[in-house]
Design goal:
This protein has 337 residues and is of the alpha/beta class. 39% of the residues lie in helices and 21% in strands.
Length: 337
């Protein structure tokens, strides 16, 4: 009886150890898959690593040699790996579509607001450029009032981006001249090509493209700068435009700031933007179903490594204290008048 009990306990211990070993092997393999994917498909990899190849290899080897026993530890290792690149568009997330939709609907009204502040000034809040319909609807509602007031505050604090087309109807309101944006290149890999082909019209994959940076086929231009808006004279008002931004103003919202800074009637206020602009058009891929996914950019701006915006962001014309920033902007506007 004692022998049988000892054998049983030994078998149980071996089974537990075996399961732990299988789990560890699986999680270790998942980390290796993530690293391989980033090294092949991340558009920022060569720029981020080429000048520090040796430190990167030491860092990677140290990470791989650590044991991983569960999803929490795997995510911690993945996050540590991604942080090496210091890219706001390269991150892990726990994808829950129901929670995402709930939060989106909960805050939808808070994202888009318009009000007349005083006899001379209007206030426009655009918390996201992810929904062009919402932005266009807001602008349509506000257009007449904006056209009758001398000053306009555009609040894009905490605007994490979306699509450039979402602000195309805002540009005529603030422009004093043509506006240009930086063109992009696509890192051509089968995975990136498949991802972009699901969004825009692309030709069939050609193996000769493999691992090359190609001018974004859907843009059809090799120029470093593209004209996004051709200036046409519009209403006299607003004459003065204040763009309010912060460290959570990123991606397409930074693209808007770049355009706005080209207008003679725009001044920017607040703090630096997030610095998540140089690498974009993210491909999302699964690591563990319903638990761990990764966002990785597939494109980079053509002007790199010159004129980088990441990771420091764009500085405002006027820095503001954290508290009561709208009131601070209004005081600056009084001096314009």
């Amino acid at each position: 009886m004692k022998l049988s009990l000892k054998i049983r306990n030994t078998l149980i211990a071996l089974l537990i150890f075996s399961n732990q070993l299988v789990a560890q092997t699986t999680y270790d393999h998942k980390l290796l898959e993530v690293i391989a994917d980033i090294e092949k498909n991340y558009a920022g990899f060569s720029n981020k690593v080429d000048n520090q190849r040796v430190p990167y290899e030491f860092f990677k080897a140290d990470l791989i040699n650590q044991s991983i026993n569960n999803t929490t530890q795997l995510r911690a290792h993945v996050d540590r790996y991604l942080q090496f690149f210091n890219d706001g568009h390269l991150y892990s997330f726990n994808f829950n579509i129901n929670n995402f939709e709930h939060q989106l609907n909960k805050h939808r009204k808070e994202l888009y607001q318009f009000k007349v502040v005083n006899d001379n000034t209007c206030y426009l809040k655009i918390g996201s450029f992810s929904n062009k319909i919402n932005v266009d609807s807001l602008l349509a509602t506000a257009y007449d009032a904006m056209s009758q007031h001398k000053n306009l505050i555009i609040d894009i604090r905490n605007n994490g981006g979306g699509g450039d087309s979402s602000f195309d109807k805002l540009l005529p309101i603030i422009a004093t001249n043509d506006m240009f944006v930086r063109n992009i290149d696509l890192l051509a890999t089968p995975d990136n090509w498949k991802h972009m082909k699901s969004i825009v019209k692309l030709p069939e994959w050609n193996p000769s493209y493999e691992n090359q940076f190609v001018s974004a086929p859907w843009i059809n231009s090799k120029e470093e700068y593209l004209k996004l808006y051709k200036y046409k004279a519009t209403n006299e008002f607003p004459k003065n435009v204040a763009v309010l931004m912060n460290r959570k103003t990123g991606s397409a919202a930074e693209q808007f700031v770049l355009c706005a800074k080209q207008s003679f009637k725009v001044k920017t206020f607040g703090e630096n933007t997030s610095g998540s602009f140089d690498y974009s058009n993210c491909r999302h891929f699964e690591v563990i179903k319903d638990s761990l996914y990764i966002s990785a950019p597939s494109t980079r701006v053509k002007t790199l490594p010159d004129n980088k915006i990441d990771p420091n962001g764009m500085s405002p014309d006027f820095y503001l204290r954290p508290e009561n920033q709208i009131e601070q902007v209004l005081k600056y506007i009084q001096k314009w008048e």
